[in-house]
Batch of 4 targets.
Target 1
Amino acid sequence: MPASPKILILGAGGFIGSHLLERILTTTDRQVIGIDIQSSKIEHLLDSERLTFAQLNVHDTRAVTEYIEQADIVISLVALCNPALYNTIPLDVIDINFNRPYELVKVCARMGKWLIHFSTSEIYGRTIASYTGLSYEEQEPKNYLLNEDETPLVLGPISNQRWSYACAKQLLERVLYAFAFEKGLQYSVIRPFNFIGPRMDFIPGVDGEGTPRVLACFMEALLFHKPIRLVDGGLNRRVFTYIDDAVDALMCMLRHPDQAKGHAFNVGNVANEISIADLARKMVATYKDLRPEFSECDFEINVVSGKAFYGEGYEDSDRRVPDIAKARELIGWEPKTGLDRALRNTMRAYIEQYASAAACRKAC
Ligand SMILES: NC(=O)c1ccc[n+]([C@@H]2O[C@H](COP(=O)([O-])OP(=O)(O)OC[C@H]3O[C@@H](n4cnc5c(N)ncnc54)[C@H](O)[C@@H]3O)[C@@H](O)[C@H]2O)c1
C-alpha cells in the first residue's frame, strides 16, 4: 500500500492548528510536520512519533522550503488574525497575511504541492444589505447570503485600516486563483466563520496582553467581574462555528481531494447566527449555569464606540451568513454543533483554565 500523504501544518501551534493536529494524529495514520513560533497549546501532542515539530518563524523561507519539500499537502494557518491589530499594526498584518503566504504559494506551485489555505469570512466585508437602509428583518437573502463564487467583496475606504486584514487575505485568494489559472497550482481555500472552542484566545493579564477576539473579551469580563463592553451596541451579527465541526470540514477535504481542489469553501454554521449583544446575554446566562456560585451576581453590560474600543480606522462587517451548499455537495460537510453546546464547551474550558487566576479577584 502506498504511504499516506505527509502533511505540513504551518501555524500548528495556534487555536485551529492545535485541534487539527490533534484530530489528524488521533484518527489517521498520517505523518505530520508542524511549524509554529510557539507550542504551548500542543504540548500534549509533541511526544507523538508521527509528529515532527519545528519551532520556526515563517520568515525563515529557506528552512520552511525544506519542510515543504518533504510534504505532499501544505496547510497554511499562520496569521495575525485579531481585529485589535488590523488598524494598529497594519503593516505587520499585511506582511504576515499576504507577503509570507505569497512566498508559500510560489514554492508550492513550483514543487507541485497541494496548498490548503485558511482565508477568512472577513474578505466579504460589508453586506449589500447594509447599504440599503432596510432593517435586519426587511433584508432580502440575496443581499446578505455570502456565496463563495458570486458575492461581491465590499471593503471600506483605505483610511479605515480595519480592512487591512481582509484586503490582504482577499488579494492572497486572488493570487491562488491566478497561480492555478496560469501555473496549474493545486489549492483549496477555507473561509472560516467565527470558529470557537477550547484553546481559542488568551485572557489579557493572565497569558497575554492586548485585546483578544470577542468571546475571550467577554470571558475575561465574566471571570474577573468587569463590565462586558459591547462595541457599537453589539448590533452586528455572526455565525459561531464549533471547532470540531470546522476540523470536520478539513478532514472532508482530505478525504475528497479531487472535489476540494480549485475551490474556496465557506465553513460556518448558519443555524448559530446571533447578534453580539445577544451573545453577551447568552454568555452571562451560560456562565451562571456553569458556575452556580455566581448565579445571583449582576454582570454589567456597557456600550462603547468602535473608535473608543479599537481606535481610529475601525469599521466592521455587519452580518456574515454563509451559503454552505458547495461544502455540502462537493466534500459532504455538514456542521452539527448548536450554539448552546458550542458555547458551553468553550466556556467550560475557559473556566477550567482560568478560574484559579480569577479566584483572587473581587467577588460580586
Ligand atoms: N479562528 C477563526 O475563527 C478564524 C476566522 C477567520 C480566519 N481564520 C484564519 O485561520 C487561520 C488560523 O487561525 P487561528 O484562530 O488558529 O489563529 P491563531 O492566532 O491561534 O494561530 C496562528 C498561529 O500562527 C503562528 N504564527 C504567527 N506568526 C508566525 C510566524 N511569523 N512564524 C510562525 N508561526 C507564526 C502563531 O504563533 C499561532 O500559533 C488564520 O489564517 C486566520 O486568519 C480563523
Target 2
Amino acid sequence: DHGPGIPDVAAALRDGYTTAAASLGAGLGTCVRISSAFDLYSVRGRGTVVMARIDQEPVTHRAETGHHHRLGGINAPLAQAAHSGDSFAWVRSGPRLTLMLADGLGHGAKAATASDAAVDELHRSAHLPPEQILRHLDGALRTTRGAAVAVAQLDTDTHRLGFAGVGNVGARIRTGDSWQPLVSHPGIVGAHFPARVPVQHLAWSRDSLLVLHSDGLPSRWTPPEDTDLLGHDPAVVAATILRDAGSAARPLRDDTSVAVLAPDRRAGAHDRRT
Ligand SMILES: [Mn+2]
C-alpha cells in the first residue's frame, strides 16, 4: 500500500496486538502463524508490503557450490481480471537456474494461453542455454498469439548470468551499487522470431539482483536503492517495485508482472541445507 507505514513492526506482528477498539483476531499475528512463509517490509511515509505464502514448495535453491538463491515475483492482472496474460517461472536443471517471464500479446484468456505455453515449454527446455530455450518457446507458441519473453539463466557453478529477450520485456541487473538495463531484441516469440538472438553475459555476485518485468510496469520505474529491501523475499522486492512505479491515481494500463532473482542474504543461508 501507499499508506503511512507501520511505526512498530515487531509489535504489530505480535498476537493480540490491535489498533482498533474491537479486533477480529485476524491480524498480522494470525497471518504469521498460518503462513508457510511470511515477510513484511514497511517504511514510514512510504507504505507497507506484506507477503504470506501458504503451502508452497520452498523457493530456495541450493547450488552444488553451496550458493543459495531465492526467486519470486508478482503478477497483477489488468483491472483485477481473472486472467493475467503474463506468466513467470523458474526451473533448475543441473547448474542452470533459469528465470523466464512471458507477456502474451494483448491481455485476457488468449494472452494467458500463450504465456502458460511458455511456462510449459520452459520445463522441457531448462537444460538448454537461453537462446535455445527461446527457440524452443518459439516452436511451442506457434499455435498461440505469441508473446514477448525474457530468459535469464544463472550458471551456479561459474556464477555467470546469460540474458536474452525477444519483444517488449524489461530487465535490469544490480551489480555493486549500480543498475544496468538488459536489452531485448525486437520480435514476437511464436510469430516473428528474429534470425539471431543476442545473449548478454554478465558476472553474478552476492550483491547482485535481477529484475525481469513486463511492459505493464511504467518504463521509467526507479530501481530500489534501500539495501534493507534487497534482503527481503524476492516477491516483496517485486511487489515494492510495482507499488513504487504507480499510485492510486495512476492505475495499471496492462497486465503487469515483476520477477526477481537474488542471492539468499538471510543470515546463515549459505550454510543451511535445503
Ligand atoms: Mn504487456
Target 3
Amino acid sequence: MARWNDEDLYLLLRDGGKAMGLSATMPGWSRLATDQEIRDMAAFVRTLVAEQP
Ligand code: HEM
C-alpha cells in the first residue's frame, strides 16, 4: 500500500487495474458505486494497514 497515494488508490478502485497499468483482471467500481463511495472505500482500505505513504 505504501506506493499508492490517495488519488491513485481512488483511481485504481474507480477504473480498475488496467487504467493504472496493472492487470485488467481487477475490475473498477465506477458503474456500481458513486465517487464518494469509492473515496470512502479507499479511505477504509487505508485503515487496514499501519504504514502510510
Ligand atoms: C474493494 C475491493 C478491492 C480493493 C480495495 C483492491 C485493491 C487492490 C490494490 C491496492 C491493488 C494493488 C496491489 C499492489 O500495489 O501490488 C490490487 C491489485 C489487484 N487486484 Fe484488487 N482490489 C479490490 C478488488 C478486486 C477484485 C474484485 C478483483 C478481481 C476479481 C481484484 C483483482 C486484482 C488483481 C488481479 C490485482 C493485481 C494486478 C497486477 O498486479 O497487475 N481486485 N487491488
Target 4
Amino acid sequence: MPHPTLIIGNKNYSSWSLRPWILLKHFQVPFEEKRVALFTETTDAELKPYNSDLKVPVLQDGNLLIWDSLAILEYISEQYLDNRGWPDDPAARATARSVSAEMHSSFPNVRGEFPMNCRKQFDNIQPSREAEREIRRIKALWRECREQFGSGGEWLFGDYTIADAMYAPIALRLAGYSLPLEGIERDYVESVLKQPAIIEWIAAGKAEVEIIEEDEI
Ligand SMILES: N[C@@H](CCC(=O)N[C@@H](CS)C(=O)NCC(=O)O)C(=O)O
C-alpha cells in the first residue's frame, strides 16, 4: 500500500502542520510529505484539490482526504498506531482528549501574540493580560497531566500521546519567546526541545526562505 501523504505549510510558521507531522515522526509511521508555502500567489491553487478550505494540514490516504489537525491525529492513531495515540487508561485518555480539544479550540491570545517562528529567538515581549491568563492555564494543565498521569515517562501522560503533539508548538513558543518557565513545565519544554523530530523540524524551518510578514512580530 502506498504511504499516506501529509500536506503541510511552511515549517517555520505552520504550527497546525507540526502537530500531525510530529506524531507520525515520533512513531516512525512512514509517510510522504508535501510542503505548500502559505500566502503566496500559488498557494490557493495548490491547496484547492484538498477540500480543506485552503488550509493545512491535510492527510491524503489513498482517495481519502482528512483535514483539520485533530481529526488527522485521531485518524493516524486509529489507522497506523493501533490506538497508541491515546493513553490506555480510560481516565488518562479522557483527560488527554480534554486537554487536546482545549488546545484545538482555545488560547487565541497566545496564538495571536506569539506566532510560531522557528527562525527567531525573541526577548522582552510582554504578553497581554489575556495571553498571560492563557499561559497560566496551559502550564496548570501540563502540571496536572504530569502529576496525575505522567510518572511512567517524560511526556504529559508518561508515554508520548496526541496531547504532546497538540502542545508541541506551544512549547516552542514558550521557549522561542523566552517566557518564564520553572519546575515541571520547564522540564516538559526541555523534553520537547530535545526530541529528535522537533530538532529536525526546527532545522528545516530555519532553512526556509519565505517570509510571512504578519507572523514576524
Ligand atoms: N483548525 C485548523 C487550523 C488550520 C489552519 O488555520 N492552518 C493555517 C496554517 S498553520 C493555514 O492553513 N492558514 C492558511 C490560511 O488561513 O489561508 C486545524 O486544526 O487544522
